[in-house]
Structures are given as C-alpha cells and as structure tokens.
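Holo model, adenosine-5'-diphosphate. Inputs:
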Amino acid sequence: MGRAVVVVAAVAAASACAAAAVLVGRRVRSRGKWERMLRVLKELEEGCDTPVWRLKQVVDAVAVEMHAGLASEGGSKIRMLLTFVDNLPSGKEKGTYYALDLGGTYFRVMQVQLGGHRSSILAHEVERYPIPEHLLISRSEGLFDFIASVFKQFVERNKNGYECSLDKRRDLGFTFSFPVKQTTVSSGILMKWTKGFAIEDMVGREVAECLQEALIKKGINIRVAALVNDTVGTLALGHYHDADTVAAVVFGTGTNACYLERTDAIIKCQGLLTTSGCMVVNMEWGNFWSSHLPRTMYDVELDADSPNPNYQGFEKMISGMYLGEIVRRIILRMSLESDFFGTISSKLSTPFILRTPLMAALCEDNSPDLVEVARVLKDILEVPDVPLKVRKLLVDVCDVVTRRAARLAAAGIVGILKKIGRDGNGGIASGRRSRDDTKMRTVVAVEGSLYTNYLMFRDYLNEAVVEILGEEVAQHVTLKVMDDGSGIGAALVVASNSLRES
Ligand code: ADP
Ligand code: MG
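Output:
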C-alpha cells in the first residue's frame, strides 16, 4: 500500500470515528434530555401524590377547621359565614321568580316558574353570557350597569307574564359567588374579591344595594329579595328536589361549599335564633389550608405570582381557573429542561393562556397520534412539532394535576360529612333512613362546569369519595348534579321566604 493511500485510509477512519462520536454524543444528550423530562414528571407525581391516608388527614383537617371557624370570627382560614338562610325550599313554593347569577366566568339570567309541589319547576329560561374581561377590574358601576342591561334585555325577550312597567312588584334572587358578610338574607358587604375580580371600590360595600340602584337606573321595578352565595343556591335547589340534601359544593371557575348547621353549633354567634334551629353556613372553603395538602413548586410560584398571594390556597389547587395554569407552568419547566419544544414561545410564557377546558381536551385526547394535543400545542402555545412521546408525557401531566384536584375536592366533601356526623363514624341524630335502616341517606348537591363538563375530574372525585368513606358508608352518600342550581336556587330562596312571609 502506497503512503498516500495509507494517509487517506487513516483520515477516513478518523472522520468515521468523529461522526460516530457526534452521533453517540447526540444520542446521549437526547437521552439526557428525555431523562430530565421523565424526572420532571416523576417529581410532579411524587409531589401530587394523594394516597388515601393523606386524603384522610385532609378530611380531618377540614373538619377541625370547620369547628374553629364556627368557634370564633377569624378562628380559621375557612370563614364559615352566616347566610341567614334558615329554611330550605320545601316544594310548596309557587309563582314566577327571577335570578341573576354572577359567577367567575359567566353571568347567567333566569326566570323560574314554580308549581307548588316538590320538584315542580314548570319552566325555566336560562341565558348565559361571558363576563367581559375589562369589567373584572373596572369600577362597580360598570359591572352593575352590564348586569342590569343584560337583565332588561332578557325580560324584554321573555315577556310572558312580565311587564317592565310593573304594577305588581316582582322579586329577584341575586347569586353572588364571592365572600360576603351577610347581615340579612337580602343584604351583605363584600369582604374580598376572588377568581380574578379586582374592583376595589366594591370592597366593603352593600352588594344588593349596588344591584338595586343599577336596576332602578334602568327603570326596572324589581326588588332584590335575596343575596345568596352560589353554593347556597345549589343547596336550595338540591333540597327542593330531595329533602336529604345537607350540603352543596361548587367546582367552576372557583370552588366553595356550604351546608346546613345547627345554630347552637355556631358558637361565634351565641343567641342566634332561627325558626328551624338551623342555618346554612357558607364555608368559603377555597381559602382552606393545611400542611397535609400536597403542594409543589408550581403551586408555590402560581400563588406568589397571583394578585392574592397566601389566599385561596385550596381553590388554587382545585378549581377551573387554575388547573390549566398549573399545567402551563409544568410545560414551561419541561421546555427549559430540553429542546423538545424548540425555542420557548412567548405564548408558553403567558400566564393563564392554557385554559382548563383546553387542558381537559389534552387529557381526554384518545386518538393514537394525540392530534388534539398537537393542535393545542401548535395553535394555543405556538409550539409545533412536539414529538409523540413528549405529547404522551404531557397527557400524563394533565392527568396528575386533574387527579390531585379531584381527590382533594373529594376529601373536602368528606370533611363536611365528618363534621356533621355523616361519614359513617357519627351517631344517627335525625333524618330519613335508608333501606337497611342503619345509616342516614346523605345527598350532596354539586354544581359547576368543572364537575359537569369534565368527565375525568368527576370520575376521579366520585371514586375518591368511595375510597375515603369505604364502600359500605359510601352507599348512603349521593352526589347529585344540580344544573344551574346556583341561580335557580336563588329564585327558590326568594320564593321560600315570600311563602313564609305570606
Ligand atoms: P362560573 O364559575 O362562572 O359560575 P361555571 O360553573 O360554568 O361558571 O364554570 C366555568 C369554569 O369551568 C371555566 O372557567 C372552566 O375553568 C371550567 N370548565 C368549563 N368547561 C370545562 C371543561 N369541559 N373541562 C374542564 N373545565 C371546564
Ligand atoms: Mg357558577
């Protein structure tokens, strides 16, 4: 072999080795990236773990905090607010009533016709409008003018039996899903905003009065006869259909719960007298906190960046406003750990861009190629061409976040049952008994689109209730969906009060 040939062969061998080294290096780096992604997922799974023993700790903590909140004003992060609703609808309510329901995302207007016996809602009209985002941070006049004009248009469209120039006074129930210090069933002061609302001039003001003024300004002759929390409306509708309904929970933009309490257990209001000996207590459980809650760095950062840090900690792990945002933060972290997502898009860095219904769509994508996941990544987060194996990982991320939320929500519900002795460990105090006559039948009314529209959330929640209570006790506990309960229930509270006044 000539010298020149040997040199060429040596150069070729060297470059082949170099190419192989580059390839191996790339593979190692790629494996490294992939392993880092897996590590992020593993850490997340560990951080969000909710074995049944931990859920039971949360149950106990909820029950303890409920006691503390009832014992003294400010005694707990759960406010346990009086509602002055001491009688729930019985079924005898009759007539036509209106309700306005201001949620976190939607404003709903409704008209309800009641037939005079249980479950006899003869007709109801509901119209739903997204709340224009600029109104969440405007002045109170802007918000209430919007509410009054939408109501006026609704009345004009559904004129059956109603006239705008009223000779007969009509009554209206107002569902206002924010913490209110109630002074009567129809009046109360806004304590603090939640769920992205920040209309500063409203805090400390009479809520029903603001609405009443806006209605008068629009020439609408109607009395705001009840101011109720959305959970209270849901409980009222639940009880109207089924007298064993003792509590209500809402999983929508935010989350909250209420239940029927004995007045003598509301120690902070000694001497509180009601005809029934009971009152509905609005827990404001969104602000519940316990060291037993499984918290991750994403929750800590989300809270720190929120307009209300150290507030609504439970809500921030559970409700529709936040679940998509938690997932966005995890995807952002994954994109920083690897280049599977290309250069980081500005969309991926935009808070709240991944709304919870989109996150649910990722989680529920059953197509073999995860086309919906690819679509959301490309269209919403502007990260195209994410490999299939990474898309699969993202589905797991959504699943972990959804499952934790639903299981904590279930622990909250069982916490209420524990407080009122319906978790299988309490005594049998009163109430109708189920067939085997050993345990009371217990119904919890549920409302909110996170629960009604997101099947996986609902399934995980229902499953966890059974897991915590055990099959035997769980047989006596029913979660019943009350569609539009928050609004219809407000109309029912008005009807029930006017029945008692007449
Ligand atoms: P509000 O909170 O205004 O009373 P809803 O009870 O309808 O209204 O809840 C709306 C919230 O529910 C949305 O902001 C969203 O977070 C969540 N949501 C609605 N549809 C879905 C869905 N299909 N999957 C997951 N979450 C959903
Ligand atoms: Mg609502």
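The longest strand covers residues 106-115. Residues 27 and 33 are 10 Å apart (CA to CA).
Archived with the compound record.
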